[in-house]
Design brief:
This protein is mainly β. Helices cover about 10% and strands about 45% of the residues. The strands form 3 sheets. The chain has a 4-stranded antiparallel β-sheet with strand order 2-1-4-5, with no helix packed on it. A two-stranded parallel ribbon has the order 3-8. The chain has a two-stranded antiparallel ribbon with strand order 6-7. Strand 4 and strand 5 form a beta hairpin. The protein starts with 7 loop residues before the first strand and ends with a strand. About 15% of the residues are buried.
């Protein structure tokens, strides 16, 4: 059931892609702090700081909700994010 829920992921309030099972997308952003958010029946967000990093990874998943699955966002270390995303399918329009 969770695979059917694919909330839009926004960066600083701008739609960037969807939280798709086994999918990955990329977004170029200026250096600095950015708010990554996703919304279903609730909004979840996390902060990514690219001030000192060239690449940041945020894992998006869907957890249990009252009516519909709720997004879960987690910043992961660059090495872990690169390894995990290597086996995913590109879902963006980059």
């Amino acid at each position: 059931m969770g695979a059917a829920v694919q909330p839009i992921v926004s960066i600083d309030g701008n739609a960037a892609g969807r939280c798709v099972a086994k999918g990955v997308f990329f977004v170029d952003v200026p250096k600095g702090r950015h708010i990554v958010s996703a919304t279903t029946e609730v909004q979840r967000q996390t902060v990514v700081d690219t001030t000192n990093e060239n690449t940041a990874y945020v894992r998006c998943g869907i957890g249990l909700g009252f009516f519909v699955g709720q997004p879960r966002l987690e910043v992961v270390p660059a090495q872990q994010g690169a390894a995990e995303s290597a086996d995913l399918s590109f879902t963006g329009s980059y």
